[in-house]
Design brief:
This protein is an alpha/beta fold. It has one domain (about 10-50, about 90-250): Rossmann fold. The chain has helices at about 20-25, 30-40, 50-65, 90-110, 135-140, 145, 160-170, 185-190, 195-200, 230-250, and strands spanning about 10-15, 40-45, 70-80, 80-90, 120-125, 150-155, 205-210, 210-220. The strands form two sheets. A six-stranded mixed beta sheet has the order 2-5-1-6-8-7, sandwiched between helices. A two-stranded antiparallel sheet has the order 3-4. Strand 3 and strand 4 (about 80-90) form a beta hairpin. Helix 7 runs antiparallel to helix 8 (about 185-190). The longest helix has 21 residues, at about 230-250. The model has no long low-confidence stretch (mean pLDDT about 90).
Length: about 250
């Protein structure tokens, strides 16, 4: 029996836009209801944040051992001044993270050829213009992923992202999916600029990436909906059902 579910959802947005809250909401929706309303089956997340954070930890361990840091620097330069806060030494590492996502997904398919029989993969990442933007990130996604994907973008302004980042930040849990945050200046440096509007290029239905047309929808999170599950469901259902129409026709 054919399941009417997305094979892959690419979940994008600014930091603290509400991506993790949407995933948390979906986890609590019974599977039959989730498939009917949102076209999402049993799902797994492939999020580049844990990969990124582990690299910071690895570099800290190397430094403690008297060895050079490989990827990250515990300080960053912004507007001519130096501040404390982990960043990558080179911008290419942002694209390495996307290649890592490709590899993780490939391993899942190799281990289970029926991976998508009842399962949706949710691939999550944020990108700012300063380190390549969404267009560059999508250029590094594999054809295998792009050919099976739809995108859900959680839309907030830069000011809202800054406010929500401050609100969720728990300094005792910097590695937490729901409670990690960035220092204000680092958030500004990396994410204030966004190429999302240019990336969609005036097409209200599809992202064009190489030879692929990836259907997308925008979850408007202003005024905020992700602070209340009762507000998430109706809007998410509406957005994803419109995306599903384009996805299923493709």
């Amino acid at each position: 029996m054919k399941k009417n579910i997305f094979k892959i959802i690419i979940l994008n947005g600014r930091p603290a836009a509400g991506k993790s809250e949407v995933i948390d909401f979906l986890k609590k929706v019974p599977i039959a209801e989730r498939m009917e309303k949102f076209h999402i089956g049993e799902f797994e997340e492939i999020d580049d944040f844990p990969i990124l954070w582990e690299q910071f930890e690895d570099d800290e361990i190397l430094e403690e051992m008297g060895l050079p840091r490989l990827i990250s620097d515990p300080f960053f330069e912004y507007k001519g001044k130096r501040y404390e806060g982990h960043v990558f030494k080179e911008k290419w590492y942002w694209n390495f993270l996307i290649k890592k996502i490709n590899f993780i997904y490939w391993k899942k398919l190799k281990a289970d050829p029926g991976y998508h029989d009842n399962r949706t993969a949710i691939i999550e990442f944020s990108r700012g213009s300063e380190h390549g933007g969404f267009k560059t990130a999508y250029d590094f996604l594999s054809d295998e992923i792009l050919g099976k994907s739809a995108t859900l973008y959680i839309d907030v302004t830069w000011e809202e992202s800054l406010m929500k980042n401050r609100r969720r930040y728990n300094p005792d849990k910097p590695d937490s999916i729901l409670e990690h945050g960035l220092e204000d200046l680092k958030l500004e440096k990396l994410y204030k600029g966004s190429d999302w509007a240019d990336f969609i290029s005036g097409d209200k239905d599809f992202l064009t990436v190489g030879g692929h047309k990836v259907p997308y929808g925008i979850f408007e999170n202003m005024p905020e909906k992700t602070d209340d599950p009762a507000k998430i469901g109706p809007h998410l259902e509406d957005v994803l059902n419109k995306v599903w129409e384009n996805y299923s026709e493709r």
